[in-house]
Design goal:
twelve-stranded mixed beta sheet; Dipeptide-binding Protein, domain 1; 513 residues; four-stranded antiparallel beta sheet; Dipeptide-binding Protein, domain 3; alpha+beta; 20 strands; globular
């Protein structure tokens, strides 16, 4: 099961202690968070791994950003207007400064996006939709599109870099942005440290420094938290350990449904799995509730599709497939696969060697055996597994989409033009109506119309089952009780860390965050 690379760390240093009033800035304090892995690059134009992107969220701002419901809201642009369906004009906030002191201008915005191609950015595909980026004056920049493209705003969340520094080699190891924290130092495979930026346009953070310590081993992260040498635990832990975390004295746990989406994928070119009755039978044969309760320790909610319930485009009124083995058997009989001998047919099920992925595969193997489907599990290290999935070399597989924000992911995953390598339609799903709807929703900026179009897409996909939707994980964040003001985001962003503060008063039941 693929997972996003997510966070945390170690030791808390208190220099010049003394009790502070609630929310008061303590510029000398270091709050330490544990992260699983080393960032790859802190240049927001080239960062693709989750940890780099999350740290970049503290160092940089985009023109716009996605809120907790994944709606696009202002960031460096205080507002924007759309004089026609192919033009977006952004008005920048005045007085925004980069960490090295220079004021942000429209030229920095133009440079950031035009440089995506020269730095080999994975985000460069957006340039195919842009005819010209025009600097109107120091505070205004216009994006002229080749055609109407409503998802453009989601592509404009990339952190804006300073044009005078970002041309230099090594910018990703010594980044300069406009965010609430500025880069201080990075010791490879040890820790990354950032410090509060006093001139941040949104107000200086209430803590002085954040240190992200890299601790790959989950068990060590737990024991460091238990010892008290970690302030915030954003990195993942095995589900079976979290009851122990909850029981730790002086530790709080925040929960929020994540935008991660775990699913069972089908090869729709397979002669057995191309039969909708077979896919429906498999959906009814899987006990999602049981797996969420016993394998994930209750740390997930059922998924009905790609989007999580908090997403603005989410459609709840879709067909679902509750656990019903008897109905599954009946559907298989109707599909022309009666029970003969020990099984109706055998399928191969590909998974990674990750322990939880293997455990889930074995649970599904047992559940499908109860309706007469034999599964042969084949486990591979992730690189080999992922290569097979992208090339269509599978019958069944399990994966997790991480950090779904833009609903345009439906086009990337289910449009018939999105077969690999152009997109992620790995199961080779084809539906002319879905194709039409996904193109239509790209060409309209009217929110109500877009919601209606995405609603129809979700209802069709739920009925046709190119995926069996399993669950959205619940994102768990553990932190010391003295860390206050923390409110986790569904996408796992680090940005809420800009709002935390330290309160050394003994917390009471009514006083906890």
């Amino acid at each position: 099961m693929r997972r996003g690379v997510v966070p945390f760390g170690i030791a808390i240093l208190i220099l010049g202690v003394g009790s502070c009033a609630k929310g008061e800035s303590r510029s000398s304090e270091i709050v330490t968070a544990a992260v699983e892995t080393n960032p790859v690059s802190l240049d927001p134009r080239v960062a693709t791994d989750a940890l780099s992107l999350h740290v970049d969220g503290l160092l940089f701002n985009g023109l716009v950003r996605a809120d907790a419901n994944f709606r696009i809201v202002p960031d460096l642009a205080e507002r924007w207007e759309q004089p026609d369906e192919r033009t977006y004009v952004f008005h920048l906030r005045r007085g925004v400064r980069f960490h090295h002191g220079r004021e942000l201008t429209a030229e920095d915005v133009r440079f950031t996006f035009e440089s995506l191609k020269t730095v080999g950015s994975a985000h460069a595909a957006v340039l195919e939709e842009i005819r010209e980026i025009q600097v109107l004056d120091r505070q205004r920049v216009a994006f002229h599109l080749k055609r109407p493209f409503a998802p453009i705003l989601y592509h404009l969340t990339i952190g804006i870099v300073p044009s005078d520094l970002a041309r230099q080699e090594g910018f990703g190891q010594n980044p300069v942005g406009t965010g609430p924290f500025r880069f201080k130092r990075w010791v490879q495979n040890e820790w990354v440290e950032v410090e509060a930026f006093p001139d941040y346009f949104g107000g200086k953070p209430k803590i002085g420094r954040l240190r992200f310590r890299i601790i790959p081993e989950a068990t060590i992260r737990f024991f460091e938290l238990k010892k008290g040498t970690i302030d915030v635990l954003l990195a993942s832990l095995p589900h079976e350990i979290f009851p122990l975390v909850v029981a730790l004295p002086g530790v709080e746990v925040a929960k929020v449904p994540s935008s991660n989406y775990t699913y069972l994928g089908f090869n729709l070119e397979d002669p057995i799995l191309s039969n909708l009755r077979v896919r429906r039978a498999i959906a009814h044969a899987i006990d999602r509730e049981g797996m969420m309760t016993y394998l994930l320790r209750g740390q997930a909610i059922p998924a009905t599709g790609l989007l999580s319930p908090q997403h603005w485009a989410y459609e709840s009124h879709v067909e679902t497939f509750p656990f019903d083995p008897e109905k599954a058997r009946r559907l298989l009989d109707e599909a022309g696969y009666p029970m003969t001998g020990r099984a109706r047919f055998t399928l191969t099920f590909k998974a990674t060697t990750n322990e939880i992925s293997r455990t889930i595969a074995e649970a599904i193997q047992y559940q499908l055996s109860q309706v007469g489907i034999a599964l042969e599990i084949r486990s591979y290290e992730f690189g080999t597994f992922y290569k097979d999935i992208k090339s269509g070399n599978f019958q069944l597989y399990i994966l997790t989409w991480v950090g779904i924000t833009s609903p345009d992911f439906y086009h990337y995953i289910f449009h018939s033009d999105s077969w690999p390598p152009r997109g992620a339609n790995r199961g080779r799903y084809q539906n002319a109506e879905v194709d039409r709807l996904l193109l239509a929703v790209r060409r309209t900026s009217d929110l109500k119309e877009r919601m209606a179009l995405y609603s129809r897409v979700q209802r069709i996909l739920a009925k046709e089952l190119p995926y069996v939707s399993l669950w959205h994980e619940i994102r768990l964040t553990a932190y010391k009780s003295r860390v206050r003001g923390f409110s986790p985001m569904p996408g796992g962003d680090f940005t809420p860390l800009k709002d935390i503060y330290i309160d050394d008063r003994r917390p009471t039941t009514d006083d906890r965050t």
